[in-house]
Amino acid sequence: MEATGARILEAGTTKDQVSLGRTDSGVFVISLVANKNVNGENRWTLAFTEAMHKAFDAIELELEKKETGPASLLVVSESPKFFSNGVDTDYFFNPPEGIDLAYWNLLVMPAFIRPIMLPIPTVCAINGHAFGAGLMFACGFDYRLQRSDRGYIAANEVQLGVRTPGPEFTLFRSAMPLDMFQQAMITGRRWNAKEALQAGFVQEIASGEELLSAAMKKATELSKLGTKPNVVKYYKSELKGYVAQEVLHFIFGDGSYNSSGKPLPPGLLKHVNDLVHADGYEKTWGKRHRDLEYFKNIKHKM
Protein backbone atom coordinates (compact mmCIF):
# COMPACT_ATOMS: atom_id res chain seq x y z
CA MET A 1 0.00 0.00 0.00
CA GLU A 2 2.87 2.39 0.77
CA ALA A 3 4.10 2.17 -2.81
CA THR A 4 0.80 3.58 -4.08
CA GLY A 5 0.96 6.71 -1.94
CA ALA A 6 -2.55 6.05 -0.64
CA ARG A 7 -3.55 6.89 2.92
CA ILE A 8 -5.12 3.99 4.79
CA LEU A 9 -8.88 3.97 5.31
CA GLU A 10 -9.37 1.88 8.43
CA ALA A 11 -13.09 1.38 7.79
CA GLY A 12 -12.24 -0.81 4.80
CA THR A 13 -9.06 -2.47 6.05
CA THR A 14 -8.73 -5.98 7.53
CA LYS A 15 -5.35 -6.88 8.98
CA ASP A 16 -3.39 -9.52 7.04
CA GLN A 17 -6.10 -9.81 4.37
CA VAL A 18 -7.11 -6.63 2.53
CA SER A 19 -6.06 -2.99 2.91
CA LEU A 20 -8.02 0.00 1.64
CA GLY A 21 -6.56 3.41 0.98
CA ARG A 22 -7.11 6.51 -1.13
CA THR A 23 -4.68 8.79 -2.90
CA ASP A 24 -4.86 12.58 -2.91
CA SER A 25 -5.95 12.36 -6.55
CA GLY A 26 -9.05 10.39 -5.58
CA VAL A 27 -8.00 6.86 -6.48
CA PHE A 28 -9.21 4.20 -4.03
CA VAL A 29 -6.66 1.40 -3.67
CA ILE A 30 -7.54 -2.10 -2.53
CA SER A 31 -4.36 -4.00 -1.74
CA LEU A 32 -4.45 -7.79 -1.39
CA VAL A 33 -2.05 -8.16 1.51
CA ALA A 34 -0.80 -11.73 0.85
CA ASN A 35 0.69 -12.17 4.32
CA LYS A 36 2.69 -15.37 3.85
CA ASN A 37 1.83 -16.54 7.37
CA VAL A 38 -1.92 -16.05 6.87
CA ASN A 39 -2.94 -16.07 3.20
CA GLY A 40 0.15 -15.73 1.05
CA GLU A 41 -1.59 -16.52 -2.24
CA ASN A 42 -4.66 -14.33 -1.69
CA ARG A 43 -6.94 -17.36 -1.63
CA TRP A 44 -10.68 -16.76 -1.36
CA THR A 45 -11.13 -17.99 2.19
CA LEU A 46 -14.05 -16.81 4.30
CA ALA A 47 -11.85 -14.25 6.08
CA PHE A 48 -10.50 -12.90 2.78
CA THR A 49 -13.97 -12.74 1.23
CA GLU A 50 -15.43 -10.92 4.22
CA ALA A 51 -12.51 -8.48 4.07
CA MET A 52 -13.18 -7.82 0.40
CA HIS A 53 -16.84 -7.00 1.03
CA LYS A 54 -15.79 -4.75 3.91
CA ALA A 55 -13.50 -2.80 1.57
CA PHE A 56 -16.18 -2.35 -1.09
CA ASP A 57 -18.75 -1.34 1.54
CA ALA A 58 -16.35 1.33 2.77
CA ILE A 59 -15.77 2.67 -0.75
CA GLU A 60 -19.51 2.92 -1.38
CA LEU A 61 -20.00 4.79 1.89
CA GLU A 62 -17.21 7.21 1.00
CA LEU A 63 -18.80 7.87 -2.37
CA GLU A 64 -22.14 8.62 -0.71
CA LYS A 65 -20.46 11.34 1.35
CA LYS A 66 -19.11 13.20 -1.65
CA GLU A 67 -20.96 13.31 -4.96
CA THR A 68 -18.31 15.24 -6.90
CA GLY A 69 -14.55 14.98 -7.25
CA PRO A 70 -12.30 12.49 -9.06
CA ALA A 71 -12.79 8.86 -8.06
CA SER A 72 -11.72 5.44 -9.34
CA LEU A 73 -10.58 2.12 -7.92
CA LEU A 74 -7.27 0.31 -8.38
CA VAL A 75 -6.75 -3.23 -7.07
CA VAL A 76 -3.21 -4.52 -6.56
CA SER A 77 -1.56 -7.48 -4.87
CA GLU A 78 1.39 -7.39 -2.51
CA SER A 79 2.45 -10.94 -3.40
CA PRO A 80 5.50 -11.13 -5.69
CA LYS A 81 4.03 -14.23 -7.37
CA PHE A 82 0.23 -14.22 -7.16
CA PHE A 83 -2.57 -11.82 -7.90
CA SER A 84 -4.92 -14.46 -6.50
CA ASN A 85 -4.67 -18.23 -6.57
CA GLY A 86 -8.43 -18.66 -6.41
CA VAL A 87 -10.23 -21.05 -4.07
CA ASP A 88 -8.35 -23.87 -2.39
CA THR A 89 -10.39 -26.98 -3.22
CA ASP A 90 -9.39 -28.54 0.11
CA TYR A 91 -10.86 -25.50 1.85
CA PHE A 92 -14.11 -25.98 -0.03
CA PHE A 93 -14.49 -29.76 0.31
CA ASN A 94 -12.94 -30.03 3.78
CA PRO A 95 -13.43 -26.62 5.44
CA PRO A 96 -11.37 -25.88 8.56
CA GLU A 97 -13.14 -26.37 11.86
CA GLY A 98 -15.33 -23.42 12.75
CA ILE A 99 -15.70 -22.16 9.17
CA ASP A 100 -19.31 -21.47 8.16
CA LEU A 101 -19.21 -22.84 4.63
CA ALA A 102 -22.85 -21.91 4.01
CA TYR A 103 -22.05 -18.28 4.78
CA TRP A 104 -18.93 -18.41 2.60
CA ASN A 105 -21.08 -19.67 -0.27
CA LEU A 106 -23.32 -16.63 0.12
CA LEU A 107 -20.41 -14.20 -0.05
CA VAL A 108 -17.80 -15.49 -2.48
CA MET A 109 -19.51 -15.26 -5.88
CA PRO A 110 -21.10 -11.86 -5.12
CA ALA A 111 -17.64 -10.56 -4.20
CA PHE A 112 -16.57 -11.07 -7.82
CA ILE A 113 -19.20 -8.64 -9.09
CA ARG A 114 -18.65 -5.85 -6.54
CA PRO A 115 -16.43 -3.92 -9.03
CA ILE A 116 -19.33 -3.94 -11.50
CA MET A 117 -21.56 -2.33 -8.89
CA LEU A 118 -19.25 0.60 -8.18
CA PRO A 119 -20.35 3.84 -9.90
CA ILE A 120 -16.74 4.72 -10.69
CA PRO A 121 -14.13 3.33 -13.11
CA THR A 122 -12.20 0.29 -11.85
CA VAL A 123 -8.69 -0.88 -12.73
CA CYS A 124 -7.07 -4.21 -11.94
CA ALA A 125 -3.30 -4.79 -11.94
CA ILE A 126 -2.66 -8.52 -12.39
CA ASN A 127 0.89 -8.79 -11.11
CA GLY A 128 1.18 -12.58 -11.06
CA HIS A 129 -0.87 -15.74 -11.38
CA ALA A 130 -4.64 -15.29 -11.42
CA PHE A 131 -6.33 -18.66 -11.36
CA GLY A 132 -9.96 -19.69 -10.96
CA ALA A 133 -11.70 -17.30 -8.59
CA GLY A 134 -8.78 -14.90 -8.90
CA LEU A 135 -9.49 -14.61 -12.61
CA MET A 136 -13.24 -14.31 -11.98
CA PHE A 137 -12.58 -11.32 -9.74
CA ALA A 138 -10.44 -9.71 -12.45
CA CYS A 139 -13.29 -10.15 -14.96
CA GLY A 140 -15.42 -7.60 -13.13
CA PHE A 141 -13.08 -4.66 -13.75
CA ASP A 142 -13.35 -2.00 -16.42
CA TYR A 143 -9.64 -1.96 -17.31
CA ARG A 144 -7.10 -4.72 -16.78
CA LEU A 145 -3.31 -4.65 -16.88
CA GLN A 146 -1.10 -7.73 -16.64
CA ARG A 147 2.53 -8.19 -15.75
CA SER A 148 4.47 -9.04 -18.90
CA ASP A 149 7.41 -10.91 -17.38
CA ARG A 150 5.70 -13.26 -14.93
CA GLY A 151 2.44 -15.03 -14.30
CA TYR A 152 -0.44 -16.70 -16.07
CA ILE A 153 -4.20 -16.35 -16.01
CA ALA A 154 -6.49 -19.37 -16.23
CA ALA A 155 -9.93 -20.68 -15.38
CA ASN A 156 -8.66 -24.05 -14.25
CA GLU A 157 -11.88 -25.45 -12.77
CA VAL A 158 -12.24 -28.06 -15.54
CA GLN A 159 -8.76 -29.37 -14.74
CA LEU A 160 -9.61 -29.55 -11.04
CA GLY A 161 -12.82 -31.43 -11.72
CA VAL A 162 -15.00 -28.62 -10.38
CA ARG A 163 -18.23 -27.57 -12.11
CA THR A 164 -18.42 -23.84 -12.74
CA PRO A 165 -21.90 -22.45 -11.90
CA GLY A 166 -23.83 -20.82 -14.74
CA PRO A 167 -23.54 -17.21 -13.53
CA GLU A 168 -19.76 -17.53 -13.49
CA PHE A 169 -19.90 -18.51 -17.17
CA THR A 170 -21.74 -15.23 -17.70
CA LEU A 171 -19.08 -13.33 -15.76
CA PHE A 172 -16.26 -14.86 -17.81
CA ARG A 173 -18.08 -14.29 -21.10
CA SER A 174 -18.72 -10.63 -20.27
CA ALA A 175 -14.96 -10.05 -20.15
CA MET A 176 -13.64 -12.52 -22.72
CA PRO A 177 -13.88 -12.70 -26.51
CA LEU A 178 -15.70 -15.86 -27.62
CA ASP A 179 -12.67 -17.93 -28.63
CA MET A 180 -10.84 -17.21 -25.38
CA PHE A 181 -13.99 -17.92 -23.38
CA GLN A 182 -14.48 -21.32 -24.99
CA GLN A 183 -10.85 -22.32 -24.54
CA ALA A 184 -10.89 -21.17 -20.94
CA MET A 185 -14.02 -23.12 -20.05
CA ILE A 186 -13.38 -26.32 -21.98
CA THR A 187 -9.61 -26.74 -21.71
CA GLY A 188 -8.49 -24.57 -18.79
CA ARG A 189 -5.80 -23.03 -20.99
CA ARG A 190 -3.31 -20.61 -19.46
CA TRP A 191 -2.50 -17.22 -21.00
CA ASN A 192 0.61 -15.16 -20.37
CA ALA A 193 0.39 -11.38 -20.62
CA LYS A 194 1.19 -11.10 -24.32
CA GLU A 195 -1.35 -13.79 -25.16
CA ALA A 196 -4.00 -12.21 -22.95
CA LEU A 197 -3.41 -8.84 -24.63
CA GLN A 198 -3.69 -10.38 -28.07
CA ALA A 199 -6.87 -12.21 -27.03
CA GLY A 200 -8.38 -8.94 -25.83
CA PHE A 201 -8.78 -9.80 -22.15
CA VAL A 202 -6.28 -7.27 -20.83
CA GLN A 203 -5.93 -3.77 -22.24
CA GLU A 204 -2.30 -3.18 -21.30
CA ILE A 205 0.81 -5.06 -20.23
CA ALA A 206 3.88 -3.84 -18.36
CA SER A 207 6.96 -5.27 -16.70
CA GLY A 208 6.92 -6.04 -13.01
CA GLU A 209 8.85 -2.84 -12.30
CA GLU A 210 6.45 -0.69 -14.32
CA LEU A 211 3.10 -2.35 -13.65
CA LEU A 212 2.10 -0.40 -10.54
CA SER A 213 2.99 3.00 -12.01
CA ALA A 214 1.18 2.17 -15.26
CA ALA A 215 -1.89 1.01 -13.36
CA MET A 216 -1.91 4.07 -11.12
CA LYS A 217 -1.53 6.32 -14.15
CA LYS A 218 -4.56 4.72 -15.79
CA ALA A 219 -6.62 4.81 -12.57
CA THR A 220 -5.79 8.49 -12.10
CA GLU A 221 -6.71 9.23 -15.71
CA LEU A 222 -10.05 7.41 -15.38
CA SER A 223 -10.80 9.03 -12.02
CA LYS A 224 -11.93 12.13 -13.92
CA LEU A 225 -14.95 10.14 -15.07
CA GLY A 226 -15.73 9.47 -11.41
CA THR A 227 -16.77 13.09 -10.95
CA LYS A 228 -20.12 12.01 -12.41
CA PRO A 229 -20.87 8.71 -10.66
CA ASN A 230 -24.50 8.63 -11.73
CA VAL A 231 -23.44 8.71 -15.37
CA VAL A 232 -20.77 6.03 -14.85
CA LYS A 233 -23.30 3.90 -12.98
CA TYR A 234 -25.73 4.22 -15.89
CA TYR A 235 -23.21 2.99 -18.45
CA LYS A 236 -21.88 0.19 -16.28
CA SER A 237 -25.36 -1.03 -15.39
CA GLU A 238 -26.45 -0.92 -19.02
CA LEU A 239 -23.35 -2.75 -20.19
CA LYS A 240 -22.65 -5.21 -17.38
CA GLY A 241 -25.54 -4.99 -14.94
CA TYR A 242 -27.06 -8.23 -16.16
CA VAL A 243 -23.93 -10.07 -14.92
CA ALA A 244 -24.36 -8.76 -11.39
CA GLN A 245 -28.07 -9.44 -11.43
CA GLU A 246 -27.64 -13.02 -12.61
CA VAL A 247 -25.10 -13.72 -9.85
CA LEU A 248 -27.27 -12.21 -7.13
CA HIS A 249 -30.41 -13.96 -8.34
CA PHE A 250 -28.54 -17.27 -8.37
CA ILE A 251 -27.38 -16.87 -4.78
CA PHE A 252 -30.28 -15.00 -3.21
CA GLY A 253 -33.25 -15.49 -5.52
CA ASP A 254 -34.98 -18.02 -3.29
CA GLY A 255 -35.00 -15.61 -0.36
CA SER A 256 -33.03 -17.98 1.89
CA TYR A 257 -30.03 -15.74 2.43
CA ASN A 258 -30.60 -15.48 6.18
CA SER A 259 -30.38 -19.26 6.64
CA SER A 260 -26.78 -19.00 7.83
CA GLY A 261 -27.87 -16.86 10.78
CA LYS A 262 -25.27 -14.17 10.02
CA PRO A 263 -26.18 -10.80 8.50
CA LEU A 264 -24.88 -9.97 5.05
CA PRO A 265 -22.38 -7.13 4.63
CA PRO A 266 -24.51 -3.94 4.48
CA GLY A 267 -23.45 -2.95 0.97
CA LEU A 268 -24.10 -6.40 -0.40
CA LEU A 269 -27.51 -6.50 1.26
CA LYS A 270 -28.41 -3.21 -0.41
CA HIS A 271 -27.47 -4.61 -3.82
CA VAL A 272 -29.50 -7.75 -3.17
CA ASN A 273 -32.53 -5.64 -2.31
CA ASP A 274 -32.05 -3.47 -5.40
CA LEU A 275 -31.30 -6.18 -7.96
CA VAL A 276 -33.08 -9.26 -6.68
CA HIS A 277 -36.20 -7.92 -5.03
CA ALA A 278 -36.64 -4.76 -7.09
CA ASP A 279 -35.17 -6.11 -10.38
CA GLY A 280 -33.18 -2.92 -10.76
CA TYR A 281 -31.40 -3.98 -13.96
CA GLU A 282 -34.22 -5.91 -15.58
CA LYS A 283 -34.69 -3.46 -18.46
CA THR A 284 -31.07 -2.65 -19.30
CA TRP A 285 -29.37 -2.98 -22.67
CA GLY A 286 -27.31 -5.82 -21.24
CA LYS A 287 -30.42 -7.77 -20.33
CA ARG A 288 -31.95 -7.23 -23.76
CA HIS A 289 -28.69 -8.04 -25.51
CA ARG A 290 -28.76 -11.59 -24.17
CA ASP A 291 -32.50 -12.08 -24.52
CA LEU A 292 -33.24 -14.20 -27.59
CA GLU A 293 -36.93 -13.36 -27.47
CA TYR A 294 -36.06 -9.68 -27.79
CA PHE A 295 -34.21 -10.29 -31.03
CA LYS A 296 -37.01 -12.48 -32.32
CA ASN A 297 -39.48 -9.67 -31.68
CA ILE A 298 -37.28 -7.08 -33.36
CA LYS A 299 -36.81 -9.30 -36.42
CA HIS A 300 -40.57 -9.92 -36.60
CA LYS A 301 -41.32 -6.20 -36.50
CA MET A 302 -38.81 -5.49 -39.24
Strand order of the largest sheet: 1-2-3-4-6-8-11
Distance between the termini: 55 Å
Helix content: 40-55%
Run of helices and strands = EEEHEEHHHEEHEEHHHEHEHHHHH
Mean pLDDT: 90
Q: What would you report as the Rg, rounded to the nearest angstrom?
A: 18 Å
Shape: globular
Structural class: alpha/beta
Annotation, overall tally of beta strands: 11
Task: Report the major sheet.
Answer: 7 strands, mixed
Strand residue content: 5-15%
Q: What is the overall number of helices?
A: 14
Low-confidence stretches: 292-302
Q: What's the quick description here?
A:
The protein is of the alpha/beta class and 302 residues long. The protein has helices at 46-65, 89-93, 101-112, 114-117, 133-139, 157-160, 166-175, 178-187, 193-199, 211-222, 229-252, 266-277, 285-289, 292-301, and strands spanning 7-8, 18-22, 27-32, 72-77, 82-84, 122-126, 129-131, 143-147, 153-154, 190-191, 204-206.
